[in-house]
Design a protein that fits this description.
single chain; 457 residues; mainly alpha; 17 helices
């Protein structure tokens, strides 16, 4: 049996980095799934990119639903193992997987049933783009349960201190997606040319493979999955705990997706090209926020186990060192997006000069906020580790909501479309500053010695 790894002992920097690197690598793998789709679809047409981007908003909204069991697994399991309570950890595994499957099935059926109305919300004004978006959403929805399960499986392993296994498994899925994308999209070899349908189908096959491997390895190598039966009746107390931990982040992510949809509707008045630009630009920008997100998960697991053990000195030092590393990543991302905007964007849409010009401007404006976005995401993980998931959600909802009026106001000035990009960048800066100050104030009030009870916070 694979041993669960203690994060409450040993070198803080070494423990944190060793845990974080596979999680960050896993984040890059997950980001690369979408990037592969965008790179190959960009060679089909800008319309194909716009269609995938439009349908992708509802897949993004779906991620807010699996956020509840994912964070419930990461934090609940970390706290349980910090207290050396394996029975409780196993119950978190069972309840999070059971909840995840039920929600995935319900959401998939809703997307399939209402796909035409859902895509129609954007009023794209281009029948070809609309039809491609509907096709993409339909195919992805069929395999959405795997898209939901894989992050929760990763959360279970991460909470137990094992971040290497999810990385290895997700790499297998990425390799499969990289191979299938050009074959199915472009129609290479025995495959017919399927365009955007091929991108969706390749993603489903890769995600299914990842889920299958997680199940096999989980059952064979981790004691957390012993005697797992998702058909058992749930325990109300564990469900309440999972909702308490994961619901704030879920609401934040869901509202963030809805806000992004509204902003996309604002952008659509300039045509389908800016929608494609935002889709590609956000994928490029995800280099920093997915990396920071991976480190955020590491910080959450590290702080979670040490919180369960009442080791406040390690919590404070772990956060400080984590913030230093993530801040460095944010600065690097800023330089990359500002100074490398042209060649980077050209990788995705190489032959559309209008899209390239808009994309370069997008990357440079968003590049200014990368450092602040990185420290905000890392601090969110620190809050999650303490089981305090409300503060980062509150800050996120507040400033993300302000993007809508800011976009309307700024885009009505001489800034035009660039006003929308500035509203996103400025709000990210505000979130990073406010949330970091808030967490620092909480740490000041925390117990000054590890011998004191962790319940005093």
């Amino acid at each position: 049996m694979m041993e669960n790894k203690k994060l409450t002992e040993g070198s803080i920097t070494g423990t944190l980095v060793k845990l974080a690197i596979p999680i960050m690598a896993t984040s890059f793998v997950q980001m690369a799934y979408n990037m592969m789709d965008m790179i190959w679809l960009g060679r089909v047409s800008t319309n194909a990119v716009a269609a995938a981007g439009t349908a992708g908003f509802f897949i993004w909204f779906g991620s807010s639903l699996f956020m509840i069991p994912k964070i419930g697994a990461e934090v609940g399991i970390a706290h349980s193992l910090g207290k050396e309570d394996m029975d409780s950890a196993k119950k978190y595994v069972f309840h999070t997987i059971q909840f995840d499957v039920i929600v995935a099935i319900i959401y998939s059926l809703l997307l399939i049933a209402f796909r035409h109305r859902i895509i129609g919300f954007f009023d794209l004004g281009d029948t070809q783009v609309t039809n491609m978006a509907v096709d993409y959403l339909f195919i992805i929805s069929i395999g959405l349960v795997f898209y939901f399960l894989n992050p929760v499986f990763s959360g279970i392993f991460n909470g137990s201190g094992d971040s290497t296994t999810p990385f290895k498994i997700n790499v297998v899925g990425l390799i499969m997606n990289m191979v299938l994308d050009p074959l199915m999209i472009m129609g290479i070899g025995p495959f017919p040319k399927m365009g955007i349908k091929g991108a969706a189908l390749a993603t489903i096959i890769a995600q299914f493979t990842v889920t299958l491997i997680f199940i096999i390895i989980g059952k064979n190598k981790s004691s957390l999955f012993d005697d797992l039966n998702i058909f058992q009746a749930p325990d109300r107390e564990y469900l309440k705990s999972i909702f308490r931990l994961g619901l704030p982040a879920s609401i934040q992510n869901g509202l963030f997706a809805i806000i992004a949809m509204v902003i996309a509707k604002i952008i659509a008045q300039w045509g389908s090209t800016p929608i494609a630009v935002q889709k590609v630009g956000s994928q490029i920008e995800s280099i920093s926020w997915m990396t920071a997100g991976g480190f955020s998960t590491a910080i959450s697991a590290f702080i979670g186990q040490n919180y369960g053990a009442g080791k406040w000195d390690r919590i404070r030092e772990g956060y400080r060192k984590g913030l230093l590393i993530v801040g460095t990543i944010g600065i690097f991302a800023t330089c990359l997006l500002i100074f490398g905007a042209n060649p980077i964007f050209r990788l995705f849409i190489p032959h559309d000069e209008e899209a390239l010009k808009l994309g370069v401007t997008y990357l440079r404006i968003l590049g200014l906020s990368q450092f602040f976005m990185a420290i905000e995401i890392a601090t969110q993980g620190a809050f999650n580790g303490l089981g305090r998931t409300v503060p980062p959600s509150f800050i996120g909802i507040l400033f993300n909501s302000l993007r809508i009026p800011a976009s309307l106001i700024l885009s009505s000035t001489s800034l035009g479309l660039n006003g929308v990009w500035w509203s996103i960048s400025i709000s990210s800066i505000c979130k990073g500053v406010v949330l970091t100050i808030w967490y620092s104030l909480i740490l000041r009030k925390s117990p000054k010695a590890d011998s004191e009870s962790h319940n005093e916070l």
